[in-house]
Each structure stands twice: as structure tokens, then as C-alpha cells.
């Protein structure tokens, strides 16, 4: 029988904890397979406070982790409280024994603190991706995906992405049919289209500090549908192309081409969310030469297709269906 240990520690997030217990902790005799044996274990034998104001108590402690084939670390708010050294050491010991180590959302910070993500690609909630990368430079943080499977170490993105990773683990252990049956019981899709990038909140800057580039950025925003070459932009600023490109990089941290592409994709996202315009017309509105070019860049930056994005985020269409 495959044994799963779910860790709880101070300020643990109840949602990800509940996902772990829902997927791995409920007996499922109707599936016709021997299901996981699951227990929740804590660092100390005392009530463990959660982020939601209530506490949890368990009779299992870190010594029981030695029995586990899989260890799951739910999330907390990074920096809220120091992760106990005995928890980090227990995770390292479990890893050395070949135990599968899984983090949900910001639980990746705990795995990183234990050194288990060094040199590995990892996921966490997009709001915390930059901080994870900054604090743990040996971790290759990918803010665009729902989860990362490195074999023995697996990490998920934010909140509901823990469901995606949990079902992925079931799929690895029992196959697609069993994973789909669990997904149906949970009333969630067995596989979600796209990655975390489609949920990242971005916006066109509207609070730029006064500078020669404030006006040109606003002007570019209102002319996204036009062909904006470096020659035209430099002419607007009365600069040489080389000087314009250098100052643009200093002001925005990116190139004119990349900045324009990002803003055009953002505009396409808003139109997909709020209108019924065809992808072809949206491509034209946003300055793409064709719908095919919009699809290529949209897939690259948002990690899903325009059609799939519209199905997920167009409120008008959702309320009519």
C-alpha cells in the first residue's frame, strides 16, 4: 500500500491541506484499487494554527514520515514564521531514502529551504515566483506552469493548481482512467488547458514616473493597432534608433519589441474577456498581421490558445451558456 504523509506546520493553508486529504485521504472502494494510506503529521505535538484562524491537532509526528512513500507539503505565507530545522532535516532524510516529495503552492519555499529544489525547475504561485527566485537563486522558477514533475520532487503553482498536481500524481500511480474518475467525483476537469500564465494579473503601466518616455509609452498604447517600427518610434522621440532603443531599455527594462508584444497580448486578453469579436478581428485591433500570428504569440506568453482563454474568462459567454 502506498503511504502518503501530509505535513502541517504553523500558518498552514487549509485549502491545500484539504486538497491533499480529499485526493489521497478518502477511501474510494468504488474504484476497485487499493487506495492510499494517508496520515497528517506535525512538527510538534500541539494544536497547529492555520492561516484561517483555527487550529489542527494530529497524533502523528515527523517520525511517522519514515513510513511514507510520498510526503506532501501544503502552503503557507512565506516569511510568516521560520520553518523549523527539524522539519527541513526530516524532508532531507525522506528525500535521501527515495521518498517522493511534493509541495503545493508556496510549500515550494519549504522545499527550497531544505535544498531539495537546487538546480531544479520548480513552480509556485505566480505572486511569489519572483521572491522564490530571489531568495533561492539555485532554483529555476517557472511562473507560467501549473506544476512541475522532476520525478522524485514535484511542485505546483498556486491554490487550485494543487488539484492539478494531485490528479497528475494519481494518474502516474493508477493511470488515466482512475485519475479521471477521481476528477469526476471532485467535479473538476482531469486535465486543464494551458498553464498558470493565463491567470497572472498584468496591466499596462498607468503610474509611470514623469520622464521623456512617459508620453511615448502612452502614445504607443493608443496606437497598438498600427505598425510601430523602431524607426517610427525613434522619429516620434526625435532620437536616433540606437539612442531610442538604449533609453527605452533603461526606462522600461525591456526592448520596444517585447514591450509592444506584451501590451498587444494584454489588449487581446481584454477583448477576449469582454467582447464576442472574432480572433481575426482581435488580431487586427491589436496590431498583429494575422490571427495565426496572434495565436503563436498568445500561446507562447499565456500558455494557452485564444479560444481556450475566451472559454475560461469571457463572463458574457459564460452567463449565456
From TrEMBL:
The keyword Transcription applies. Gene3D superfamilies: 3.40.50.880, Homeodomain-like. SMART domains: HTH_ARAC (SM00342). Coiled coil: none annotated. Keywords: Transcription, Transcription regulation. Residues 214-312 form the HTH araC/xylS-type domain. GO terms for molecular function: DNA-binding transcription factor activity; sequence-specific DNA binding. The keyword Transcription regulation applies. InterPro entries: Class_I_gatase-like (IPR029062), DJ-1/PfpI (IPR002818), Homeodomain-like_sf (IPR009057), HTH_AraC (IPR018060), INH-QAR (IPR052158). Pfam families: DJ-1_PfpI (PF01965), HTH_18 (PF12833). It comes from the Bacteria. This is Helix-turn-helix domain-containing protein. It comes from Ktedonosporobacter rubrisoli.
Amino acid at each position: 500500500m502506498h503511504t502518503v504523509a501530509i505535513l502541517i506546520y504553523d500558518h498552514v493553508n487549509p485549502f491545500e491541506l484539504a486538497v491533499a486529504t480529499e485526493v489521497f485521504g478518502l477511501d474510494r472502494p468504488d474504484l476497485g484499487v487499493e487506495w492510499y494510506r494517508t496520515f497528517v503529521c506535525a512538527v510538534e505535538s500541539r494544536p497547529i494554527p492555520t492561516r484561517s484562524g483555527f487550529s489542527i491537532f494530529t497524533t502523528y509526528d515527523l517520525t511517522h514520515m519514515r513510513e511514507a512513500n510520498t510526503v506532501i507539503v501544503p502552503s503557507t505565507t512565506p516569511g510568516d514564521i521560520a520553518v523549523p530545522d527539524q522539519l527541513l532535516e526530516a524532508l532531507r532524510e525522506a528525500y535521501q531514502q527515495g521518498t517522493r516529495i511534493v509541495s503545493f503552492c508556496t510549500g515550494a519555499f519549504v522545499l527550497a529551504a531544505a535544498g531539495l529544489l537546487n538546480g531544479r525547475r520548480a513552480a509556485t504561485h505566480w505572486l511569489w515566483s519572483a521572491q522564490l527566485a530571489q531568495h533561492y537563486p539555485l532554483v529555476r522558477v517557472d511562473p507560467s506552469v501549473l506544476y512541475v514533475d522532476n520525478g522524485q520532487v514535484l511542485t505546483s503553482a498556486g491554490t487550485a493548481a494543487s488539484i492539478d498536481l494531485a490528479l497528475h500524481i494519481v494518474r502516474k500511480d493508477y493511470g488515466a482512467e482512475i485519475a479521471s474518475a477521481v476528477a469526476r467525483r471532485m467535479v473538476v476537469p482531469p486535465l486543464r488547458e494551458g498553464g498558470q500564465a493565463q491567470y497572472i494579473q498584468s496591466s499596462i503601466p498607468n503610474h509611470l514616473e514623469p520622464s521623456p518616455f512617459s508620453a511615448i509609452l502612452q502614445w504607443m498604447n493608443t496606437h497598438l493597432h498600427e505598425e510601430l517600427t523602431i524607426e517610427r518610434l525613434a522619429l516620434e522621440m526625435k532620437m536616433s534608433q540606437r539612442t531610442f532603443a538604449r533609453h527605452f531599455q533603461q526606462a522600461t527594462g525591456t526592448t520596444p519589441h517585447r514591450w509592444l508584444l506584451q501590451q498587444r497580448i494584454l489588449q487581446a486578453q481584454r477583448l477576449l474577456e469582454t467582447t464576442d469579436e472574432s480572433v481575426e478581428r482581435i488580431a487586427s485591433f491589436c496590431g498583429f498581421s494575422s490571427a495565426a500570428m496572434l495565436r503563436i504569440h498568445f500561446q507562447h506568453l499565456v500558455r494557452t490558445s485564444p479560444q481556450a482563454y475566451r472559454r475560461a474568462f469571457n463572463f458574457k459567454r459564460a452567463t449565456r451558456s
